[in-house]
């Protein structure tokens, strides 16, 4: 009997419960993914459509939806008949008829629409290649939560497969900083789980569930699936970790308010050197040369409502994991 082999990435919405991406599990940039709804009511399907459209706003991936079997195959096949689980990232068996995603939570009468939207955004994040935030190489809260995830995963899978232990270990260990692309660790990422503080070292309060894409989720999507004008070199392979492919950066302000960006180290452009810049809505900055594979910056809207920083300190971006000789960093905020 065919087992549910991919049911290892689950949306844990029970009381216990950016972004990091596996680059070679991405779909080809610019893809339109065909989504075949195998069952479900129009209301459930609408939640998925809305979440997919949200991701599409921030990266170069789009979705096409159908309730009939598509002649040319399907990239996602969604059923609402079993507990939530998603096949991770890109795959090639587009002519199969079996589900690649289950979303039974969307049939629940006990969850709010906002929470169902969260679940759809989270599962679609896995489809795009985004990992759980608790596997981030810089996850700051110790290993208790990973061990707990390992235990609950084994309990779920032990009746279904014989190698539950190794499967669960493979999806619940910290990700290697050299084989994943990671953006700054983000408490607010849609890829994080709500988590009780008792599982978190050096943290006194719970991780609350995030209901929307965070600013860093949006930036990670934009960098992982760049629109054409971002000038990235397209490749599915990782760059040599010793070489700095991305040697210049620029910013674009996609927040509706003016933003001030401050750099920890002086950057240089063709015309000047600077430690800060001011950008109005949709304004692009000059291109600045990087002298190291790291970029430290913080940014703040002029009304003080949005900031991009790490507890008041500078955000640290390791640009060496990015591709292309130029990276444009969009400054999104929650209402972008
Ligand atoms: Zn998940």
Automatic annotation (TrEMBL):
Signal peptide positions (record)? 1-18
Q: Which GO terms describe its biological process?
A: proteolysis
Q: Mind telling me which residue stretches traverse the membrane in this protein?
A: none
Keyword terms: Signal
Domain of life, per UniProt, equals Bacteria
Record-level Gene Ontology MF annotations: metallopeptidase activity; zinc ion binding
Keyword Signal applies? yes
SUPFAM superfamilies, per database record:
Metalloproteases ('zincins'), catalytic domain (SSF55486)
- Residue ranges of domain Peptidase metallopeptidase in the record: 23-160
User: What protein name is recorded for this chain?
Assistant: Peptidase metallopeptidase domain-containing protein
Q: Which organism is it from?
A: Pleionea mediterranea
């Amino acid at each position: 009997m065919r087992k549910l082999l991919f049911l290892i990435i689950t949306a844990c919405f029970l009381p216990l419960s950016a972004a990091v991406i596996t680059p070679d599990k991405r779909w080809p940039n610019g893809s339109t993914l065909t989504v075949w709804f195998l069952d479900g009511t129009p209301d459930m399907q609408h939640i998925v459509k809305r979440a997919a459209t949200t991701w599409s706003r921030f990266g170069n991936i789009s979705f096409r939806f159908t309730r009939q079997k598509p002649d040319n195959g399907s990239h996602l096949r969604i059923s609402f008949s079993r507990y939530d689980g998603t096949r991770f990232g890109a795959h090639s068996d587009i002519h199969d008829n079996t589900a690649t995603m289950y979303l039974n939570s969307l049939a629940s009468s006990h969850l709010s629409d906002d929470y169902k939207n969260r679940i759809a955004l989270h599962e679609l994040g896995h489809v795009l290649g985004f990992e759980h935030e608790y596997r981030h190489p810089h996850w700051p809260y110790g290993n208790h939560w990973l061990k707990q995830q390992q235990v609950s995963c084994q309990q779920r899978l032990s009746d279904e497969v014989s190698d539950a232990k190794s499967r669960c270990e493979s999806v619940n260990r910290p990700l290697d900083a050299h084989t994943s692309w990671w953006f700054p660790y983000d408490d607010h990422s849609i890829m994080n789980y709500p988590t009780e503080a008792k599982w978190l070292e050096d943290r006194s309060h719970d991780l609350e569930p995030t209901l929307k894409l965070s600013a860093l989720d949006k930036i990670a999507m934009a960098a992982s699936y760049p629109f054409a004008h971002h000038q990235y070199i397209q490749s599915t392979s990782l760059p040599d970790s010793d070489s700095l492919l991305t040697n210049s950066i620029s910013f674009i302000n996609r927040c509706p308010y003016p933003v001030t960006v401050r750099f920890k180290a002086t950057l240089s452009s063709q015309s000047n050197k600077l430690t800060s810049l001011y950008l109005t809505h949709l304004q692009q900055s000059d291109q600045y040369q990087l002298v190291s594979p790291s970029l430290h910056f913080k940014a703040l809207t002029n009304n003080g409502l949005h900031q991009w920083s790490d507890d008041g300190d500078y955000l640290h971006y390791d640009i060496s994991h990015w591709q292309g000789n130029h990276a444009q960093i969009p400054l999104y905020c929650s209402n972008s």
